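User: I'm new to structure prediction. If I give you an amino acid sequence, what do you actually give back? Let's try with this one:
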Amino acid sequence: MINRAIFSTSMGMTIDVERYARHIVLREIGGPGQQALAKAHIAIIGAGGLGSPAALYLAAAGVGKLTLIDMDTVSLDNLQRQILFRTEDVGQSKVDVGAATLHALNPQLAVERVSCSLDDANADTLLSSADIILDGCDNFETRFAADAASRRLGLPLVSGAVGRWDGQVAVFNRTPASPCYRCWVPELPPDAETCARVGVVGALTGVIGSMMALEAIKLVTGAGDVLDGRILLFDGLSMTSRTVKLKKDPACAHCSH
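Assistant: Good question. You get back a string of structure tokens that encode the predicted 3D arrangement of the chain. For your 257 residues, that looks like this:
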């Protein structure tokens, strides 16, 4: 039985037993899973409605390093759902404020701040050192760039999206046999809806962002079954969810050639 507040791992790092006690007693995580979390590096694209709760829960879970990628500054209308920020943060860099908030929650966390947009030209450079990619961005161009980099780098992509009262979560590119994001959304939608245009209830982003963090924790620790080849669809108005299967498309121009 572990009876010390801190124990050392075989990799020379230390784990705070009291901080992570509720994880360590879980059969599916335990000490080895907590060590895996401490060694993990997760890149989060977008420090907004989805990235905020995901980052907070991953920091609290004991993930060793997070990379926050977002070029924006905090605006007043962000505060309805982006819980990394406070009113006094309006006008400041999201990655700078986000890093300070996350470090205050867990001082052992390393946070890399990247204040730019992710695109095809820089995606490999920004993501290559990560173990898992979380995509919480708000546009399809960035989603497509993240998906392509995920395939090239061989990194699983945890993807979330929200609009109005609905949300979805999935894991793409976990293995070469897994579907990619373009198997789900082959081309840029002609009239893509945005939260700015159609609205979104703030608490929904917390639900979906937390699910994204949960999938990442499961990927790191090997616990349970992740949403590989499945899309979880959540309806906040009716408080119902369903999961649809998604197979790798043999005709996909992006992952099946």
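You can read the tokens as a compact description of the fold. Here is one thing that stands out. The longest strand covers residues 157-163.
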